[in-house]
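In the current project phase, work has continued on tokenised descriptions of protein folds. One protein thus recorded appears below exactly as we store it.

——
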Amino acid sequence: MKSQLIFVYNANSGKLNAWLDSAHKIISPKTYECRLCDLTYGIFKENAEWARFRESVTNTYPSIELKFLHIDEFEKEYASKWLPKYEYPCILLKTPETDSGFEIFMSAGEMNEITTTPDLINALESKMKAI
């Protein structure tokens, strides 16, 4: 079984929510609350540098699978009365050893300190080497 990095965006899924998020990024980018989305997506599509990195992970880190979820998708898929309350966005690690739970791989606080896509990629690569 592979380890999973579960990226949880601080947004809900669906076309209407995507449209509202895009509008928020245009109208008031400083108040947009999903740093992960800011770093991985532009207004209308995925950041090209991020897409290249994401696609390269399979070859570079074959023991790691990336999974991307919005808050509503994450909470539905992993619903449990024992699920801790997470601050979003965050990246969670699920390994064969931690199959019953998650470790915080990158917290919302850590993510909010990152200002560019290359910085996010560097931080992830540095941490992924330890998995």
About this structure: The first strand starts at residue 3 and ends at 9. The chain is about 45% helix and 20% strand. The mean pLDDT is 84.
